[in-house]
Each structure stands twice: as structure tokens, then as C-alpha cells.
Amino acid sequence: MFSAASLFALLAFSIMGSPVEVHNSPITLPMTRRLTFSNVTDILRHDEARVAAFREYRPASILLTNRNMDHIVSVDIGSPPRTYHLIVDSTSSITWIGARDMYVSSTGIDIKEPVAVNNVFYSFEGTMFRDTFTFTNGLTIPRMLIGVASASRGIAFDGVLGIGPRVSSRGKLQDDPDRTIPSVTDYLFWEDLISGPIVDIVNHGELTFGGDDRTKYTGSIRYTDITTAPHSSLYWGINQRITYGNTELMPPFAGIVDCSATFLYIASDAYERYRAATGGTVNNMAHGLLQISIDQYNVLDSLNFYIGEETYSLTRNAQIWPRSLNHIVFGNHNDVFLVVKSLLTPSGTRFSLQRFYTVFDADKSRIGFAQTSYTDAMTN
User: What is the reported pTM?
Assistant: First the structure.
């Protein structure tokens, strides 16, 4: 969906293959996390393109975890089963394949429905198929709708696993634009494999379908309703405002929870207030990142997001670029760079949920957040 070492630690989670019984208790699946860009220029180009795409819709802001540290889930599709590595996308309900390898399956049924998705992050066009879809731990959906690309761009893996709300797919079926496409969460619920259309993200490497995993967060999950604001309501959208310490940076505004970028973008006027409050200076050699001294870092205040009746704070450590990766922004080992950047418009924001447990509850049209053991971590 930018903070601390937990954001950029290149963790690999092994995926175990074992039979799964049909049941409706929460099901947890591992994700692999991979840094897909080798330099910050590519990361910034990707982020800024993503921001530009969302700026076309007003009013809206963007909330996210991260994309350039991609969340990857492995699945088997068809017969004989073939393994595909899919990027988890919370802004789309459409699961699709074909970005790299040709789809071949004896059980696939072409339903003759052309489909096309075109955004600045990725695009594909192709046809919808029904086929057997199996997570590599054995959890199986027998007749899932899957897009098979005849052309695509922007994806370094095999395709996308869509966990967004169904309404996000409206307009994507070329012959029936009012029809929506179910997400993998919907299918798990309809097959009675989980008790509700709920999916949780633990951003250090797990997806949980059907309920929350109490071992992955601390305290309670606090929920807020999906916003009714135009555009944002088509996605996992919420209302929020931002302060730096006691200084208000941005008044209440609607936004989208989107696991899609690396830096934290806030409105241009909020960015100027943040820059002034932190004392950061723009380092053009470091691709325009704000740089602060060690003394300024030591007194850095929290960056606070007010969502519903709760406050979610990014500690000073959560606001800085991982120093172990300073070399890719042409910095020295002990330099301190902030990950907050300007959205280049006077409204909107992009908020990292990296340090929080996140629940997408389609059944009750709400989103929940809880603290984790990483929320206040000071390692970077």
C-alpha cells in the first residue's frame, strides 16, 4: 500500500503446498515481497504516473501500502495446473494472467467476453475465461472468472490478483459495461470456503480471507465506513485528515486505500507545511527527496492520520527512507531522507498503511485498521 526497515526488508516467505479442507474459518496465505525497481528514478516515475492517473478524478486522494515492494501471491490455474505469480491489487476486483506466459488449459472455458483495463500503472486487453483457480496451499475455486491477456504492459510478473470491490470493475467488460467482475474474495465466500467477503493484509507478508487473524495485530481493529465521495466510493475509499504533531497539514478529504506506491504523497500545500515544520531541504541530487540532519530527525514529530474516530501515527522512523537503501538515492549511509513528497495539486494525499493491519470488509462496506508489532518500530 515507505516506512522503516519493515517496508523495504527483502523478505521471502516460503509457500507450503498442502491439502486444504473446505471450511469457513479465516484462511491465511503467504505473500512474497519483492523490490521490483533497482533505482529510485524508476520508482519515482512509477509513483508519479500513478498519482497522475488518480488526479484525473476529483475530488480524490490516494491511500496506499506499497507497490514497488510488490506483494506477490502464487496460484495454480487450469489443467494441467500451471503456477502463476500475481501482484496483489486492492484497486481492482479483476484477476488476470498472461503478462508473461501464454495461458494453456484443457479445462478453461472462453465465455467470449472481451475485457480491457487501462491505467497508468498497467493495462491489458483480452478475454474472460472460467477455469479452476488454486492457491498453492490447496485452496480451490472451481469456476472462477479470470482475464486472459492478449496484450499487456506494465507488469513484471504473470498478472494481477484482484481484491478490490466489484464496483471497481464497472466498465471493463466491453460488451456489457454495466456488469461487474467478482473478486477472488467474493468467490471464496460464494464457495463457502470463508464466512464473509473479508480480506486482511499484513504487509510483512500475508493475506487472510474470511476474518481477522488475531495473532497478527495488537489491540482492537477500528473500522470506518467507505466514503460516499465521488470516485473514491468506487474503491476502498475513506475520509481522513492529516497533522504533523499539532500542525494541521490537510483538512478532511476522501481517499483510496491502494497497495500501489513507495513514497508518501500529500497535497502540495500540505507538503509545504510539512517541509517548513520539519526543516527539510530539497536534495535534487537525491531525486528531490527532503533531507534532514540527524539533529532534526531526533526531534521529528509524528505524522498523524485521523480516520473515523481514530488516529494513526507514523513515527519519525516511519517517515524516513531506509538508510540501508541510501545508495540508490545517491546518499551517504548516515544521510536522512524523508519519504513524504508533493502530490503537485492542492488537495489529496497518499497514506502508507505499511505499519498497520488492514481489513477490507465488503459485507459491511467498511475498512478497519489495527496496530501491529511494526507500528512503532524504530529499526531502519
Answer: 0.80
